[in-house]
Amino acid sequence: MSIQATVILILILIEFLIIVIFEWMRIVRRKEESREDNLLIQSLQQRVQTISSDIQKFYGKKTESLETHVSDLEDVRRAMMNVMEDLKKERDYSQQLHERLSLATRVGHIGVWEWSGESQEFALNDELRNYLGIDPMEEEIIPLVRLQKLLQGKLTQDFWDEFLATLSKGRSFTTIVEFGKSSETKTYFKVTGMPIESSPERMLGVAFDITEEIEIDRVKTEFVSLVSHQLRTPLTSISWFATLLKEEDLSDTQQDFLDEIEHANKRMIDLINALLNISRLELGTFAITPEDFQVPSLLDEILTEFECQIEDKKLQLNVSISDKLPDTFHGDPMLVGIIFQNVISNAIKYTTPKGSVDIKLNVKKRGAKVAGKTVPRESFILKVSDSGIGIPQSQQDDIFKKLFRADNVKKIDTNGTGLGLYFVRQILLQIDGDIWFSSRENNGTTFYVMIPTRPMKARGGAKTFEEMA
What we know:
The protein is of the alpha+beta class.
């Protein structure tokens, strides 16, 4: 082969070799690029997996929290539904209760009122509006000034002054109200009120028409008065004939019988006189005859009447009279004397021998506190304490009732009438006074008597108590 041909062949081989080398290099480069790509893909896959894992973790917690909130909200929803159901039942029950109470007030003829001290307004139910003769078309809430105008002439200004003063104190009370212009059309109400605990400026109360009960009591009292008057004449005759018989020549036995007749007759006369006094007091037909007198002097006179009893029982009597008392008091000495006499008599009568009786008389200004009570106006205060038998706790609420006598009193004194303290309390109510007590059985009793120092107003009547005695 020629050299030229050999050179050409070598060149071709070299070219082929170069081509092979380049091809090989291209293949190698592609493999390297492919490996890098694989690495990149693997890296991306790992990154995607990490991000996916993080997303799953993040949203997994959020989902879990959301599910918890959804569950809590469902519990709240159920609780709210239960509350709404309870409220509905409560509303239905309140409505039923209101309807029943309204029916009860209508059937029982019970007037209901509510007072707002802040707005000076009254709310009255239909029954009370009917009692008072108020137009049903009148507003449900009635201002005080408007109510006073509606009831003008039917209730006195003195009533309004006292009633509003009572409301302003914010304490429970019970009183009897006279309503009407004349005796023929006059109606009597028993009015009770008490403060609303959640709102001290408000008072809630009821009113009952007790006109029929008042009339029944009046008729009974008139009957007692009539019977007592009729009995008085024959009893006086018995007493007179017994006195005449004593002048005759009688045996000792006959004399004893006559003494028993006189004693029983005297007890009957005393009882009738007491009943007559009570009937006059309840009917309002007794006279009040005020005059100027000294209260300490009256007390001394009454104590003088009991000197023999005090000496016989060897009682220790302690009397204290304040030097701040008014020089004179314009009042009825007979009424004041009856009050003092009854309270002091009980203390002496029911104190055991060698016991003690303490009597204090002073004067207290308006607003002063006396044994748990507030003095509404300047008053004489008589305090009578004894070391006697006391009053049983179970019977203390009955002590001012007519004809009531405690069990322990009946055992030691069979001659009492049970009218004394009732009589005293009725007199005090007539003159705006008061009486109350504290006591423990077998440990003595303390009575407090309050008599206003303001002058008593004269009042005409059929008789005075002195004339009936």
